[in-house]
Amino acid sequence: MFLRVFFIIFFGSLVFSTAAQITRFSFTESKMGAPFTIVFYSKDGAQAASIAKRCFVLVDSFNFIFSDYIDSSELSNLSKSAGIKSIPVRLSPALYDILIQSKKAFELSEGAFDITMGPLSKLWRKARRQHQFPTDSTVRSTRNLIGFDKLIFDTLHKTVRLTQPGMQLDLGGIAQGYVAQKVIDFLLTQGINHALVNASGDIVVSGAPIDKEGWVVGVNLPEKTDELLNKKLSLKNRAVTTSGDAYQFIEKDGIRYSHIINPITGYGVTFQRNVTVIAADGTTADWLATACSILSLKKAKKLSSILGAEVLITELKRGRLKLNSTRGFRFFWKQGEVEYLF
């Protein structure tokens, strides 16, 4: 699982329309290894609870496909096939779709986003858990197991082959945004047009809260879990994700290595940087935040512009806070004071 810097979400409590009572409902369950929150407006409490239950079932169904923590998941079974060249693996529509989107992300990001980094992800998870920094030789040998050129697609038959023995796929940098978007899409089919889904900091929203301009979201400062930028975002029909190392990192010789791994070096990035991406959908916001955490400022802004997304890169340099963003990001800052805190 790829942990995100958590957003803080602001919104009103109960809202009443002139025609009928419209109530805000909030549901939270532990899903995909972290709190998963769904907020929406409805006239009927029983119906709202039923819809939320169906949403969480949907989340579970995706988790059993995408998780590399579940040994029997479809993704885990695919990874187990690595190196068996004669056996292409036919995939479910959901897994094939997210792998195709991951391939596009890899190409657009010039390799900064790479789901074949499963072996490196597991190596660094173990290092953080045991507080033991791996040797350079271990990192190099593990890095030899990754590479998108070792992931072969058959677009006609919707199959995939992992040609390198020991390969493991890791969807942690894209799956949460993908699932959050699917939940919003499902809510729209149920007539729920004003909703927010927060998948461990990957947030997707549809229409604004009743009588509000947008969903108000606060963003953490670099390396902080409880300090926010003094400005807040106001969003509707958008997705937003922030990547940073406030929650997972390892230190050696005074250098802090993020859990965000650079596929080229095999090591976590050492920038004191948070990246916030606003995009049209949750999948793009998720993987783009990871890619922009690795790319140079210039390349991160260029890639975001190509995708019609906006990016804010907040860095600490010599103890001073520096903010860099694409031009359109400024239009999402909320004006005035925040009224409610969730």
Point out poorly predicted stretches.
Answer: 11-19, 337-342
- Say how many strands there are: 17
Largest sheet strand order? 2-3-4-8-9-12-15-16-17
Question: What value does the Rg take, in angstroms?
Answer: 20 Å
Under the CATH scheme, which architecture of the domain at 72-162 would be assigned? Orthogonal Bundle
Biggest β-sheet: count, sense, barrel? 9 strands, antiparallel
- Mean pLDDT, nearest integer? 87
Strand content: 25-35%
Quick overview of this protein structure:
The protein has eight helices and 17 strands.
Question: What are its keywords?
Answer:
342 residues; alpha+beta; T-fold; nine-stranded antiparallel sheet; three-stranded antiparallel sheet; 8 helices; 17 strands; disordered C terminus
Molecular structure report:
With 342 residues, this protein is α+β, with helices and mostly antiparallel strands. It has helices at 45-66, 74-80, 93-108, 118-130, 136-143, 175-189, 282-294, 297-306; strands at residues 8-10, 15-16, 21-31, 34-42, 89-90, 151-154, 159-162, 195-199, 202-205, 215-218, 233-235, 238-243, 249-252, 255-258, 273-279, 310-317, 320-325. It has a nine-stranded antiparallel beta sheet with strand order 2-3-4-8-9-12-15-16-17, covered by helices on one side. A hairpin with a 2-residue loop joins strand 3 and strand 4 (34-42). Helix 1 (45-66) runs antiparallel to helix 6. The radius of gyration is 20 Å and the shape is globular. The two termini are 24 Å apart.
